[in-house]
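Last lecture ended with a question: if I hand you only a sequence, what can you say about the shape of the protein? Today we answer it with a concrete record. The protein is DUF1615 family protein. Below, first the input exactly as provided, then the predicted structure, then a couple of comments.
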Amino acid sequence: MRRIFLFIAVSLLSACATQAPLAPSPLPSATPVAALPTPSVAPHSPSPAPLLSPTPSPVATPKASPKPQLSDAQGRVLIAQLLPPKIGDREGWIDDIHSAFSALKLAYTPEYVCALAATIEQESSWQGDPVVPGLPKIVWGAIEERAGKYHIPLIAVQTALLKPSPTGKSYKARIDSLRTEREMNDLFEDLAAEAKNLNLPLNMKNPIRTGGPMQVSVEFAQQHTQVWPYPYPRKGSIRSEVFTRRGGVYFGAAILLQYPAPYTDMVYRFADFNAGRYASRNAAFQQVVSQLSGKELVEDGDLLSYSNGVPTGTSSVQSALYAVAASLGMSRDEILRDLKQEKLVGFAQTELYQKVYALAEKGGKRWPRASMPQIDLKSPKITRKLTTEWFANRVKGRYETCMKRL
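The predicted structure:
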């Protein structure tokens, strides 16, 4: 029996984890916000950035005189104007979006409100606890696949899962009736909590990495609260807050909007939401490095290779840059020093970034400062070929529809 439960937990806890584009003037920017850790929301698990101090950092603003900031009351009116007219509990959504903007100190602009609304619509179709079609089949399929590797019949696993769970229902019954990610997260939390009583490994963690109406990264949410206070009272963990509508909108707004993005087309923010902050800027940088070095690079927005959050080995981008180090007039140590800022806004001000573009544009050609990350999205919930570019363009279409409500 011990072996069966060990197998069950490992199977469940490894089978269902899921996740995350120039006009002449920049988009409206938020009020100054703290430098925050890069979210890990992308299916390809972008490298995490170190936690930073909450000291506000300036955000680029348009050259023209800035428009007066809307008050909280005016912001609520704007949100009510821009949200789709026919969504369930519309007033509740307005409340949650309004409180997120206020708590995160984001500017109330049509662009920001529509960016958030479009992302919510894309990720959950305005469902506070999104339903995942065929979720029991996904879970059982993953368990059966793993069972085969251990030569354990699925029926034996299902029998073991007849053990009552803390809700009173058996684990098998809960799997059979799974509808939403929140239910799946609660199931895994109960299994992990019982690991000790079942004499199972103590280091097992809930594998659900994203959830809620904006598919927010649990890791991002946990890191965010270390540098920006969570504004709502809570009974459970930050993880559990991610799976609520209020918490999901709050952390989703933080991922999407609470950082100084150097883009003049909102589509690149949407790409970053899926692939990791500054992935679009970094993908354009990879494009230029590939041209200079003659080495083919995957333009995914990751410039370094990481292990447990620490740069390790030599990435393909590093190798390409080392090949042109003499032309750049930089040593390998200097190149690596600047590459370590790849997840931060300041990377674009580094010596490396400036010299790479200066060298590439020596002949007069202008290279883009943002490019769509080329990433295939993979998840047990995805049944067809999808990419970050597909995601970003889908959200932008919804964004443009929202902006027309003005």
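Comments.
1. The chain has a mean pLDDT of 81.
2. The chain is about 50% helix and 5% strand.
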